[in-house]
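Predict both folds.
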Amino acid sequence: MKDLYQSIKDKLISRTKQIESLDEWLFITVNTMKAIVDNSNKDEIDIVIQVADMQDTEQIQRFYDLIQGKYGGEGFSCRNDERYYYLSSIVAKYPPTELSEKDRENVRGYIDYNHFFLYEI
């Protein structure tokens, strides 16, 4: 997991415009959602677990929007940070794609990872 995180982080530092790999996109999306909730209200971090049951990228993108609305407001210290805007644009640009059981299994692992792109890119 650490190697994948570092590989994605390197791409994000170089400000790639779009992520092609579903696996990388899922990691970025789950990681950013978790960072938003963790930054705003650590007590509700378990809400991110719901992503593991989602069927496609569109459903995840809608959930990301919900997370932004609920946790990305005044209590979120990075809400005006260009890194947050950049990561949100990566999340928004991914095309509609069905998730496999393997993808959902990977998401469960990403949820448990506790380093955040938001603070490290």
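Second protein follows, with its predicted structure tokens after the sequence.
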Amino acid sequence: MNGKQAVLEAFDKLFDKAANKLNVVVSPEEKNEAKRDFVERSAAALDIVEQFTMPALPQEAIVAMEEAIEKLSRAELVGYLAAIPLAHQTQEILRRIAYRAAEQRLLEQFVEQADDRYGGN
């Protein structure tokens, strides 16, 4: 089994635990859709771990993660749900800021080269 398969196997177990915690009945199609979304969001990390051969994640780690799910309060669950779109928006804003900063640095380099090469004004 490669690392990606191990992570996705753990996802299945943790998804079932979370659905049980929330008393939510999820169809196999809905679970597969959630798994596809997880794969899309985690593509970079999954591509890296896919290169490694490994057994399933240690049972102790799975149990610890399941216990963490079980210990979540209703307020914590709601907080996590509220934070998800905010985190996505924040990432988008940071991406835009980084892009603009890179553009600015590029423009500054072009200006410096123009001044040096052609004698400036």
